[in-house]
């Protein structure tokens, strides 16, 4: 079972809902997390149970970031709006930085999200053992 988080900027929420709906069969059985409105929108049209944190601008991105930093998350699907400035851009940058530091895959567009979800569906997520083997701070 993987721990997966969903985040979507306002203009990407419909795209996220459609994506998760299309792959609902893959997400069943995994622990799911999201920022507030994104999770609510997904739960309204699927049978998935999602632990919702605060809205991104109110701290939800940081809450998910803390899960990354404490090794409590395996994958993030974060559909960002690259054409709209975000008031909480420093939080977004910090979250993406943590994903890089801790080796957590993060999809920021639908094409990458689909590749990762198809890997989950095939059971091709052995990368997690490699991340733990070479985890930052272990051999430093």
Automatic annotation (TrEMBL):
GO terms for cellular component: cytosol. HAMAP family: Methylglyoxal_synth. NCBIfam families: MGSA (TIGR00160), PRK05234.1 (NF003559). The active site is at residue 61. Belongs to the methylglyoxal synthase family. GO terms for biological process: methylglyoxal biosynthetic process. Substrate binds at residues 9, 13, 35-38, 55-56, 88. It comes from Paenibacillus graminis. Residues 1-140 form the MGS-like domain. It holds the Pfam family MGS. Keywords: Lyase. This is Methylglyoxal synthase. SMART domains: MGS. The keyword Lyase applies. Its EC number is 4.2.3.3. It catalyses: dihydroxyacetone phosphate = methylglyoxal + phosphate. Catalyzes the formation of methylglyoxal from dihydroxyacetone phosphate. One of its GO terms (molecular function) is methylglyoxal synthase activity. The keyword Chaperone does not apply. SUPFAM superfamilies: Methylglyoxal synthase-like.
């Amino acid at each position: 079972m993987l721990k997966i988080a969903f985040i979507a900027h306002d203009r990407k929420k419909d795209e996220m809902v459609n994506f998760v709906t299309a792959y609902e069969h893959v997400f069943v059985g995994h622990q799911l997390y999201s920022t507030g409105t994104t999770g609510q929108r997904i739960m309204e049209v699927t049978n998935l149970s999602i632990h919702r944190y605060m809205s991104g601008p109110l701290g939800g991105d940081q809450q998910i970031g803390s899960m990354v930093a404490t090794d409590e998350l395996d994958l993030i699907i974060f559909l960002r709006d690259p054409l709209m400035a975000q008031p909480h851009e420093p939080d977004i940058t910090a979250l993406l930085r943590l994903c890089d530091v801790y080796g957590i895959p993060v999809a920021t567009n639908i094409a990458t999200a689909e590749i990762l979800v198809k890997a989950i569906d095939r059971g091709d997520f052995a990368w997690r053992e490699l991340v733990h083997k070479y985890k930052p701070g272990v051999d430093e």
